[in-house]
Write the structure tokens for this entry.
Amino acid sequence: MSFFCLGIETSCDETAASVVRDGVNVLSSVVSSQLVHSLYGGVVPELAARAHVRLILPVVNEALDKAGLDVSRIDLVAATYAPGLLGALLVGLPFAKGLSYGLGIPFVGVNHLEGHIFAIRLEYPDLKPPFLGVILSGGHTELLIVSNWCEYEELGSTVDDACGEAFDKVAKLLGLPYPGGREIEKLAGGGRAVIDFPVPDPGGLDFSFSGLKTAVLYYLRDHPEVVRADVAASFQVAAVRAVVRRVEQAVKQTGLSVVGVAGGVAANGYLREQIGLLAQRMGFRLLVPRVGYCTDNAAMIAAAGFERYQRFGADDFNLSALARTPICPPGDL
Ligand code: KG4
Ligand code: ZN
């Protein structure tokens, strides 16, 4: 008998819903990106919340339609409860609870970062932990040992800006629209990485990206005639070098032979290529999901929700939305 999980994601500026069968088969994945934020050069929380309110029902209905299922066939509803913009989370989470209550089916809250890890499983359903997990998103940069599904050991994270945040901020400095990661990649494609931007090293397996952004800021101030594409290409090389360096160290330190990379920045072609070269050199198996599973989506939330339900059962309706929380809150295991 098939088990259908409806996933709902509203932690930032994507309203997304998906139906996943048995934790790994994506029957539909609908992502509505809110374009309004590009007018302001970044996500405006209040506008994000309002757009989620407008979009949530049509997006959920579209996900059900594309899956060819009536809502009565859904066995479990999973929604992101943290981390993210509170006003945005407070659309998808109560919607999911209401649906669960109305249909008399269980509800599970999912940590968005855990969702990104499960995007790797969606692409590689046979994957078994342990593996090294690398999450590179707009708000987080995490290096973890995934010791078992839903069990993590954090090795390092960013001490300041997230990797995607650095792409977004540098894009803004270059006059590119939000979100900036893809724009930087496009511009970098026509440039040469001739500027040697320094990448700060906070030590251990932690990351630091704010110094890199500041280096770009000063470079642009001091070289107004510079070719913007060269700045984009040089920044991209420096940011990717910072990630590759940490992955190399983490593989050496842990001896793990499988590395999964996820989150919006994992959509970057240059990053995928460079980690690919590292994988060849070091001999580890590299798993990077397709672009649509790297960037925010609800299929990953449904996949994570399914696994959490198998392991821990349903969540209580008291589960609150949280702006910040680690991938596995203390006491969760
Ligand atoms: O995981 P995600 O979709 O949302 C968050 O959880 O934050 O990641 C969004 C981030 C943004 O910072 C965006 O600029 C970046 O991922 N991003 C990229 C690319 N596509 C999205 N960064 C570099 N290259 C890309 N192609
Ligand atoms: Zn994300």
Summary: The longest helix spans residues 228-254.
